[in-house]
Hints:
This protein is mostly beta strands.
Amino acid sequence: LSNSKKIAPYGMVKFHWDERQHTFLSVWSNQLVSVPNGIPTMSSRTGLIYYVGQHDEKWTMEGVNWETGNLAFRYSLADRLKYNSFYAATEIGYDGAIVSGTFGGAMRLLPR
C-alpha cells in the first residue's frame, strides 16, 4: 500500500521560473508531507494546496500554504484502503467542500 512508511514518497517543492537565467529556482521545500498517489489542487482564494496524503500510515486530507510551504492543516481519515486516492484529483467545490476520488468512491469533506 502506498501509505506504508517504507514505500510512501515524501516531499513537496515550489519552484519559480527565472526568465533571465532560464532555469527553475527552488522557493521552498517541505520534506515532512507525503502525497503518495493523488493529484493535488490549488486554491487562489485560500492560498492552499489541497491533497489526499498519508501520515503515520493513515490517509489524510491536508493543506499546505502556497507561499511558505508550511502545513496549514491535516485531517486524519483512517488507514483503510477505501481512503486511498487511487490516482484521483482533489478539487474544491463551490461550497468550499474538498472533493476527491478514492478507491471507495467519491469523498466530500465540508469546511468547518
